[in-house]
Amino acid sequence: VSPALRLALAAGTLTVFWYGLFVSTAVNDGTTDSPPLAAEVATGARTGATDAATLDALLVASREAFTAGQWQDAVAPTRALVERFPGQPIYVSRLAEIYNKLGQTANEAAAWELFMERAPLPSEACPSIGYAYRRLGKDELALGAFERCFASDTKSAELAFFVGLANEWLGRFTPAQEYYERAIAIATVHYDSEVGLARLRLHRNQLADALARVTKVLGKVPEHVDGLLVAGLAQQRAGKRREARVHLEKAATLSDDYFDVQLALGVLDYSESRFAEARKRFETAHALDARRRDEVQPWLERTAGVASGKNAS
Amino acid sequence: MTAVVAVCRALVILFWLATSAYAFLSAVPFVYEQFLQPGLVPALVAFVRWHRWLTLACVPVAAMALWADIRIRGAYLRGGGLIWVLCLAGAAAAVTDPLAAAQPGVGAIVLSVAALVPVWWLAAIDVSLAAWPDTHRSGDLLARDAAVALAGALAVTVLYAAMGVATTGAFDGVGSFQSTAAHGLLFAAVFAAITVVRAIADLTSKPAQWEALCASILLMVLTGAATALVVLPAVSARDAASRIAVTIFGTTVGLVLAARGVRAGRELDRDGVALVLGGLLPAWAIATSHRRRALWAVVVLAVAIAFRSASGAMDWNFAVAKLGAVVVWFLVLATAINWTPTRVTLPPAVPFLSSAAILVGYLLTAGRLPFGPVSLDAATASSDAWVVGDPSFRTLRDWLHRPGPAATSGDPTSASEGIRFFDFLQVHTNIGRSVAVAPVPVELARLEGPPAARRPHVFVFVVDSLRRDYLSPYNPGVSFTPAIQRFAADSTVYTNAFTRYGATGLSVPSIWVGGMVLHKQYVMPFAPMNALHALLAHHRYARRMSMDNIVDLIMPRDTAVDEIDRGRGVAEFRLCASLDNLRGRLDTIASSPEPTFTWTLPQDIHVAVINREGNRAVDEADYGDLHAPYASRIRRFDHCFGAFVGDLKARGLYDESVIVLTSDHGDSLGEEGRWGHAYTIYPEVVQVPLIVHLPVSARAALATRPEARAFTTDITPTLYTLLGHRVTADAPIFGRSLVWPKAGPPPARPPFGLVASSYGSVYGWIDEAGSTMYIADGVALRDYVYELNGSAAGVSQPVTAAARAEGQRRIRDGVQLIADFYRFRPPAP
């Protein structure tokens, strides 16, 4: 055998050794079947890709797809990053946002739960996690999530407010009031909670009190949409339709995809016999939130004649 | 005469290598602070004490070693020059005593390298006087080298497997196969490297000479790399200066051996590689006589057994065991290449294909391919079992081990963002002296007003390396600690207590601070962080203490301290002697208006002390499965402890005193082949005894939970509570009082379970119940999970991805919390 061939064979042997022992990171993890997606994300149990080049590729793919708004393309690399870097909650929150954009609310909620488990500041999952549960119709879980957030940061007025809000969603007005007041005590000034308190007055039909409270807020923040809604509803119930319309239409201008505002304007239009306009508002509301179609359905039925050329009944 | 010259030559070389090694150890902060300064190893103390005179004595010895060379025409300058240099070195050493003055820093590293100059010089003389003949190259060397590799691999595998099975009485099929394959890989790599050397030589015009030269370089590279791989992890050094110094040291050893080979082999009929490796063997071992060969085989076996025995007696992170394995590999290789005949023939492709097959076999049995019969977890469990008896495989396994997936920081705003986990640990560990960190005042509670009306005497006994399973309050099977059992009966025995640090270096400071400290030896001045000292000063305690080397740094001695072990080195601190001193002061203590605080750190059962005392039991009692040298010393001081408690009772002091019996860490006493504590934080190292006796009045008013997880860092906060302070420091890194008023709630205890090695980047996390511990070993780059089931060593559990992720996250967050509190930011690399 010539020296050159021996040299090549020996150097090749050493190179293969080096690659096999020190470069390759393949491992036999003892698994043969891939667990389902939800289990993977929930436990982060799979180790996934490990070599540096693949990881770089994943990082770039996830970041670029996310930045470009190509949500479906961003799912796979981001999920791989979550599995590979279980200690990096930043990828979990990115995954949750991607699911949010894709409308995969159950996956979004699961991702936020994972985030709360792993992140140094679990409260950063709020309010997204609560709203995800809200969209799933699981208000109890939303309340639980907000309570966990607040427990992790009891000096946050914002988190106290969300606990109050979730209680309000569940019709538990007394604890809702407590948490709104707690938020105001923490922050001294907290307009969302002030509006929340006004809304609670509205629930209790204390119209003057509600209006007085919300008017104060609107004096400071004229474009507070929730405040405008509460003011509009209070005035509507008090029979002050003109003032109510001013507030509600301003709210609709500021937030044209707000179900409650559209519904309130529809009811106002209906009460003023503006059935075509009312019908249009109800249809808009119907399209905005499928889960609350039960609330708008009776109004759609009442205005069905508008669509078919008949008078509303 | 030749023998005298050889001995003199060896003495000179060994002396300067030892000087270099000691200087390097002085450069490592924790080795300097914890081992060299306290004088834990008497042989090293004697070496330094006599070094200046040994340097002078080295001159005539070197002259004798070089006498024959100097007489050779042309060698006057070479040999004579070295003598003059040694004279100058001896004179300089006599005046400056540089080894005694060596301290961590660049100076010690430079001294370490400079000490190698005489060794290089001697090697250069050998090389210059070598004949560099046309060495004999005949037969099929490729086949012969393959046979050498095969013989070497088999010899080492069988040797260590036999020793292992004989020692442990256990056999693991997968582990033994991994060991065989790993040794096969080692010798296959050496075969390939030798083939490269021969091929390069064959491409030149003088192949024989070039082969000897390239083989010399190969030997230097191998010894340099092996030394670095064994020594650097053992001292947890990663800085460039340390790497260079250690590699140069190892390379120098290779140079000396190669030079001896090429010079001594000038009359022998061998090829260049065999010529160079012949430098590792005595001339008689190369002979063809069967009797001499058998004798040499016995010598190699004896070397392997001797290193193993030395490692069993005292080792540091298996450094002695690994060094022994490396020495045996080289001896076996040199022997095989000098004994194997050149008549072997083999198709050229066979050795290379065999090498590839061995690689695949190893990767399969090590779980390092994505398929195969053995998963990574199963392979790791098998190799963990096999390395207990096989230090050679342990060495290879640790070199070949790849870390599991590690997380990077998830916080994009964090300074550590993007740093991989083990690197993150490393930059927060063993922070060098050159990195200036200002002390951050630690205020566990506001110390205001006059001293407390009721100030109990406080006696804190921190028995170095004491394990709780060797005390009867923790282990009903122990009967040799009756006095401690009686003491425990009217005290609180905390059954779930842990040290925060796996060795004295940081454990003791953390007790005084009452919390975890920056991984640096030490942030100076330490006083602003010394919460216990502040408490004692505020309440005007008289301090009657043993001043160990650490307390001496963190609470500098002053005239107010009554030293109870004055005149003794730390290594000489014994509980009986300390208690005898203290008992002589009890009348003074009883009559003094000031309360007394006592601290001792007795070394009775420290592994270095036991080893120095012959590693034998001090009585004839039967200790069953327990380690008799350790247990017998505990029995001895138990008696003294009982007498001391009796004296306290006789003077009416017992019921007015706080007495704490604990340890700074435990120790490995053979569990899975482990000895000592070094960098490790295995369960037997972090689980400690903690027995607290309170004054009668305090016992009536205070509540406690002896079964709850407790740490040694809780001792100082507890003393604050006992003296009427409410601990207000709320950072999780601080301990919490073990007691609280019965009328009130217990103090909020953060779920902060971080523990760490004192000397290396090894961290752990103990869960809130104290029932599970995750360990991230940044020295060996691997991790473990242990169930803490009440036994000393716990039960090893598989490391799942979820456990790894959770454990690493908690450790990273914990280390970051410490860095944040002490305002430490790692310097940029």
Give a description of the structure.
The complex is a heterodimer of chains A (313) and B (829). Chain A is mainly α and 313 residues long. In chain A, 74% of the residues lie in helices and 0% in strands. Chain B is globular and about 95 Å long. The chains are: A mainly alpha (313), B alpha/beta (829). The interface between A and B is large, with 40 and 53 residues.
Tell me briefly what this model is.
With 313 residues, chain A is mainly α.
Task: Please outline the helices and strands.
The complex is a heterodimer of chains A (313) and B (829).
Chain A: H1 3-23, H2 37-43, H3 52-67, H4 71-84, H5 89-102, H6 105-118, H7 128-135, H8 139-152, H9 157-169, H10 173-187, H11 191-203, H12 207-220, H13 225-237, H14 241-254, H15 259-271, H16 275-288, H17 293-302, H18 304-308
Helix pairs in contact in A: 2-6, 3-4, 4-5, 5-6, 6-7, 7-8, 8-9, 9-10, 9-11, 10-11, 11-12, 11-13, 12-13, 13-14, 13-15, 14-15, 15-16, 16-17
Chain B: H1 2-27, H2 29-36, H3 42-71, H4 76-96, H5 98-101, H6 106-114, H7 117-129, H8 141-168, H9 173-202, H10 207-234, H11 240-264, H12 272-277, H13 290-313, H14 319-339, H15 349-365, H16 376-387, H17 391-400, H18 421-427, E1 457-462, H19 482-489, E2 492-493, E3 497-498, H20 504-513, H21 531-538, E4 542-545, H22 549-554, E5 562-563, H23 575-583, H24 586-591, E6 596-600, H25 607-612, H26 628-650, E7 657-662, E8 668-669, E9 675-676, H27 683-686, E10 690-693, H28 696-701, E11 702-704, E12 710-711, H29 715-722, E13 739-741, E14 754-756, E15 762-766, E16 772-777, E17 782-787, E18 795-797, H30 801-821
Parallel strand pairs in B: 1-6, 1-7, 3-12, 4-5, 4-6
Antiparallel strand pairs in B: 2-10, 7-10, 8-9, 11-13, 14-15, 15-16, 16-17, 17-18
